[in-house]
Amino acid sequence: MIVTKAKPFDSILPFAEGRKNIFILGCNVCAAKMKTGGEPEILKLVGQLEEAGHPITGWVLPTAACSIRSFDHLISKNEKIKDADCILVMACGSGTSIVSSLTDIFVTGTNETVSLGGCSGFDLSERLCVFCGECNIGDFSGICPNARCPKAQMNGPCGGSKNGKCEVSRDSECVWYLIEKKMDSIHSIPKLHDIQMPKNHKV
Ligand code: SF4
Ligand code: SF4
């Protein structure tokens, strides 16, 4: 089970600013067990955001956020997601990454992903999130360079990225190519100019 803990509400609020249609997506497996993404936590976040003046377009609680394989699947659960300009994922970093990969809508997570908790039911997990416990995946609309770049480049690509491919393995896409494509599609390239500080690996 992936171990997560909820981010403070104040750190989620900036992602809601300026959004007209916020949609919330939970996870009824690990995050529900951790009380960071089940129905009670979703309803609490809906209430907090609405109280802060951010009406929620809709929400959905899939079985496991990291097992979603198509956007159509989410639409079939709640078609309001089509109107969203922001999806808040109450799951682990992998679940957030999976949702981000299915859509051009801005995506961020509401949790810190702390550890693998012993074992994972999904092979994808370790490739999409390395459980750093300081999740800033929202700064990249749900694509984690810390986990997906072999050099963990946090402030742009290294000099080896070529034609969208990674120099470490030309079979793989450079994660910074994916990030730039996504941020461009949501008109947020200037956000990438923010300097990302080093993560604290002591804990
Ligand atoms: S920043 Fe990346 S590695 Fe860290 S918790 Fe978020 S998704 Fe996982
Ligand atoms: S090419 Fe891209 S993914 Fe590969 S090491 Fe360089 S920045 Fe990271």
Rg to the nearest angstrom? Answer: 16 Å
Fraction of residues in β-strands: 5-15%
Major pleated sheet: 4 strands, parallel
Question: Termini distance?
Answer: 20 Å
Overall geometry: globular
Name every ligand kind in the structure: iron/sulfur cluster
H/E element order: EHEHHEHEHEEHHH
CATH topological fold name of the largest domain: Rossmann fold
* Helix proportion range: 25-40%
| Low-pLDDT windows of residues | none
Instruction: Quickly give the structural class.
Output: alpha/beta
How many strands in all? 6
Strand order of the largest sheet: 3-2-4-5
Query: How does CATH name the architecture of the largest domain?
Result: 3-Layer(aba) Sandwich
Mean pLDDT: 93
